[in-house]
User: Which sequence fits this backbone?
């Protein structure tokens, strides 16, 4: 299993979310919904420093772009 | 006009984005697409401190929730 909040971790999660919702959401819509829900969670986490929150969101964004460009 | 990156600013932008895309996106899909695009932009802004980036994303999240719950 990938390290939590790493790029591979978010990629796996995007792929699972797309797969689970494929009957109701297009790939892009599923990805945008997952992205919004994760950012909402990350920024409400008061245990972490802002630098760590920004690092995690950057990993999420990178994973988003990598999964989006996959066939 | 609202102060840039404030909650009212993001609310206005969500509403404009929903309106402009209403023929192709549902309200939720438009909001998620806009949200993703703004977060992607905010975190790639190296001019701002992490605390300012997190503050802006929190405003975006708050605006999202307020617009989402409007009829």
Assistant:
């Amino acid at each position: 299993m990938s390290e939590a909040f790493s790029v591979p971790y978010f990629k796996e999660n995007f792929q699972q979310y797309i797969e689970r919702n494929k009957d109701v959401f297009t790939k892009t819509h599923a990805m945008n919904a997952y992205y919004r829900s994760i950012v909402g969670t990350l920024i409400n986490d008061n245990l972490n420093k802002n630098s760590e929150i920004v690092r995690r969101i950057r990993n999420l964004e990178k994973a988003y772009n990598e999964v989006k460009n996959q066939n």
